[in-house]
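Record 1 of the preview.
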Amino acid sequence: MNKHIHHTISLILPTIDFNSFKYNNIIGFTGSIVRRRLEIIPIYWHYAFIYGFDNNQRLILIENNEKGVNWIFWEDFIPKVGKWEFIHIETSANNFEKIISRAKERSKYPYHPQKNNCEHFVNFCVFEKLESFQVKNTEEITNSVLLLLESRLINIEDPIIPKFLKEINTLRNLINLERGVKELDDMVKRKIEIHYTNQ
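->
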């Protein structure tokens, strides 16, 4: 399938004829945020915001993905089968310049799943907040699972446990995920240190 996706180093946008639409009896403008389920991992969403309509009345969105910030036609953004929804309808026509200026600013930064993903991008462009609730939720769930595992392992006396705890530490460092519980943090570090000191 030949998708009309345009990737650029510096965001260059096509000319639009108008930037308003009607959805559920609400008039929306540039900056309205839409998301769709990811086909590969359907617990996650891919985000973009409405830019406007070209002279052929084709709806254009702006998104951020692994190839950077780009514009894409609605029919290519929304899969033929799958869930999508608006999560914000921009009701002011006065924010066009600010939103597009922020999009151009963010186009200079490479995509990063934890620090600069599609949700970070749309939230920055529309609300000037560089945040992703998907990342926060994933980090909280991952940390909860690891904390539970570490708290169970810390009291087991077996020579393999410090090695396993060290692997969990390596994973935490790799994904930049702090434990957030000082007492457990100290206990894990001490158990690892004692094991490797006595070898």
